[in-house]
Every structure is written in C-alpha cells, then in structure tokens.
Amino acid sequence: MWRPPVTQTIAEEVLRKHEKPAPLPRWQRAPLLLYGLVLILLAVAVHLIGALACGVADAIAPGLVPPSWPGGLLLVSGGLALPGGSLAALDLLVLVHKKRQRHDVMMAPPSIRLLTVVLTAFNDEESIGLAVDDFRQHPLVKRVIVVDNDSTDHTASVAREHGAIVVHESLPGYGRCVYRALQEGLTYSDTELTLLCEGDMTFRSFDIEKFMSYIPHADIVNGTRIVEQLRAQRTQLTNFMYYGNFFVGKLLEAKHLGKGTFTDVGTTYKLCRNSALRALLPFLRPSINLEFNAHFLDTALSESVHIMECPITFHGRVGLSKGGNTSNRRAFAVGMRMIRGILSGWPTA
User: Fold this and answer.
1) Which of 174-178, 254-258, 291-295, 320-324 has the lowest mean pLDDT?
2) Which of 164, 201, 165, 166 is nearest to 320 (CA)?
3) Contact 54, 66 (CB under 8 A)
4) 3-class DSSP assignment, residue 34
5) 123: phi > 0 → left, psi -120 to 50 → alpha, else beta; which?
6) Nearest to 34 by CA among 85, 88, 79, 86
7) Out of 25, 27, 99, 128, which could bridge 258 as a Cys pair, Cβ 3.0 to 4.6 Å?
8) How many domains does the chain have?
9) Same domain, 50 and 194
C-alpha cells in the first residue's frame, strides 16, 4: 500500500503535535455541558410528571382546583432548566475553544503495519475456530492470541487447533479478560499495533483496512456499529441497545467536549497503538465487568489519549451471547452502570 514520504522536518512537527498537551485549569476541565444536559433532562422529566399529574387531576375531577404540588413541579422544572442551559451554553460557546487542545489533524502513520490480534473468548467453542481463521488469513496479521476466560467447553483446544496462541485467564469477568488481552498484545516487540476483538464472529477481519486508514490520525481507533447499512438484519444488538449505545456515547462526548465524536460505547473492536496502551493500562480497572468498554474510553479521554471512531460491519453472532446483549433488561442495567461511571466515577473494586 502506497504511503506518502514523510520528511524529517514534517516528522518532527508530527511528533510535536502528538505530544500530550498541557493540562487546563481545573475549572476549565469541568464537564459543564454534561452537567447541563443532566439538569435539562431532569427538568424535562419533572415537567412531564407535573403536566401529567395536572391532566389526571382534571380528568378525575373536572372544574375543581387541582392540588398545588403538580404546579410546583412545573416551577421546579424551570428552576432546573435555567442553570442547565446556562452551563451547557458556557461550555459550548466559551470553553470549547480551550478544550479543543489538538488544533491540527494528527498525521503519524505507524512504522510497522503488522498487527497482533487479541480475541476475548468465553465458551465460544462454536465460533472461535472461524474467528481465528478469519483473522489469521489477513496479510497484516502477525499472530492471533485467544484469551480464554476460564471456559468450560473446548474453546481453548479449538483455538489451538486453528493456529492461535491461547492464554488462560482464570479470574472471571469481561473486564479482566479484556485487560489481560491488552497486556498480551504488549508483550511482542515486532508489532506496535494491537487489534482487540471478540471471538464470536460479530466482527470480521475485513474491517482491518478501515482501521489502518484511521490509525495515522489517532492513538486508538474505536469501531462503531451505528451505521445502519453496515449492520446485519439480525444481530444481538436490539434497537433499544442500538440507541442506548448512541445516547451514552453522546454523554461521553459531552463530558469530553472537544476531544471527539462518539456514537458507540459498547463495541469491543478497537485498534490501539501499543505506546498508548502502555500509558493507559495503569489507569484501567479490570474488576469493572460488562461496562468495561465505556470505562476504557472514558479513562483514555481523561488521559488525553486521542481516539477516533471508525464505522465497521456488524454481523450475527455464532453461538449464544453471554454478555450484556442477552436481553434488553440486562442491557439496561449495564447502560445505567455506564452512565453512573461517566457521571460520578468508576468503582475502585
């Protein structure tokens, strides 16, 4: 694949722009847009409750004076909306220019284009062989590592039979499995890029070329399943999960205003520079379970790691889902933990 030459002067400029920017004063770093949106959403909810209560009271006893508390809720909603809108406007109109610390497009192609692929797996006997074969056949893939999260079926043996390096992670939990996978990707010096994915065939090696087109402009390229035309008709991602991921992505974007556009916080498919991972891993908490991907993105953005989204294809799962996509009810619980982590911080244990 042809790449334009980079002169020494340009390379030095690229490195200078890629340096971690100086931190802003604390008050300028505050996620005012996020707080403002939360207040506005709360105001809308309170207003709807008050309006509904007034309507019900009027339907039950037409012509009578309704109780005073519904009207009080309407006043409360206005009291919430005003400061919420003020905080959001301050962030969007005044502070956003200071928060956009990267004013030029990052142009830093990796010197080594080969990848180490790390696949997380838990009882994926049906799919893991297909996934390993799919990634191993790609010309940019140097090796495929499967991190087996203490499966009770033949996931590990099937992965070995298909040519993967198998690592056993005995501690249960999605976060621990992903964390171990990223650690394993960093153990090889002949690649400087680690591609994180799952072994369930929902993602395919076909999208590697897309990731490689984006990686010169970022430290981490995060796949997004938000493009309707790139999703298979039947996947475990229901409409509720689809729009829920989008909503949480926008909360993340509001928290880290000026650092990127985010539409999918739940996808596992990511291409990471090893240099960024080495700096980031000490701040990640592997004890966080199914909401680990949102924690990963939030933490990376807090540490000024440059992240871009890349539209990827999304396919039906081979085998049964064991994560947050088993039902809308479970996905709602995972989503609420994501929102709580973004708003108030991630649990330490």
Assistant:
1) 320-324
2) 201
3) yes
4) helix
5) left
6) 88
7) 99
8) 2
9) no
Strands 193-198 and 115-121: parallel
340 in any annotated domain: yes
Angle among Cα 230, 159, 176 to the nearest 5 degrees reads 75
What residue type is 32 in one-letter code? L
Same structural domain, 87 and 139: no
Q: Is 30 exposed, middle or buried (0-12, 13-18, 19+ CB in 10 A)?
A: middle
Same domain, 232 and 148: yes
239's CB contacts (< 8 A; 6+ apart) are none
pLDDT at residue number 322: 65
Q: Which residues pair with 198 in a beta bridge?
A: 120
Amino acid at 319: G
Same structural domain, 201 and 261: yes
Task: Using a cut of 0.85, tell me whether the model's pTM lies above it.
Answer: yes
Domain of 68?
27-99
SS3 content of the chain, % helix, strand, coil (to 5): 50, 10, 35
Task: Report yes or no on 7 lying in a domain.
Answer: no
What pLDDT, in 10s, does the model give residues 3-55?
555 444 444 444 444 555 566 666 677 999 999 999 999 999 998 988 888 77
**H helices of 92-238, where?**
96-99, 125-136, 155-161, 174-185, 208-214
Q: Which amino acid is at 338?
A: M
Distances from the Cα of 62 to the Cα of 58, 59, 72, 210, 214, angstroms: 5, 6, 20, 62, 62
Residue 349 lies in a domain: no
Q: Phi/psi of residue 345, each to 5°?
A: 105, 155
Strand partners, 166: 146
Query: Has residue 200 been placed in a domain?
Result: yes
The model's pLDDT over 247-258, given as tens digits with 9 standing for 90+, comes to: 999 999 999 999
CATH of the domain at 301: 3.90.550.10
Strand pairing of 141-148 and 115-121? parallel
Query: Of 224, 196, 237, which Cα lies nearest the Cα of 323?
Result: 237
Q: How confident is the model at residue 214 (pLDDT cuts 50, 70, 90)?
A: very high
Nearest Cα to Cα of residue 98 among 32, 152, 149: 32
